[in-house]
Design goal:
Largest sheet: 5 strands, mixed, barrel
Number of domains: 1
Order of helices and strands: EEEHEE
Strand content: 35-45%
Radius of gyration: 12 Å
Length: about 70
């Protein structure tokens, strides 16, 4: 089942995996023009800030969870 999540910074993504994501989970995301400008090329990580969203537009997928603690 598709789960919408809002990341810190306000971007809405979707997750089709199991188990469901929780607030505070760190997730792996595809490069986009903003992440490329800020962090360079390649995947980037974000943190889930909110579960669910009323956003009705197109969303990009969460690629996976990032295990371990942020340094």
């Amino acid at each position: 089942m598709r789960q919408l999540v809002v990341l810190e910074g306000g971007l809405t993504y979707h997750w089709d995996g199991e188990p469901a994501l929780e607030v505070g989970d760190r997730v792996l995301l595809e490069e986009n023009w903003v992440s490329r400008a800020r962090q360079g090329p390649g995947h980037w990580t974000g943190t889930v800030a909110q579960l669910g969203s009323d956003y009705q537009g197109q969303t990009r997928p969460v690629l996976g969870r990032v295990e371990g603690q942020e340094t």
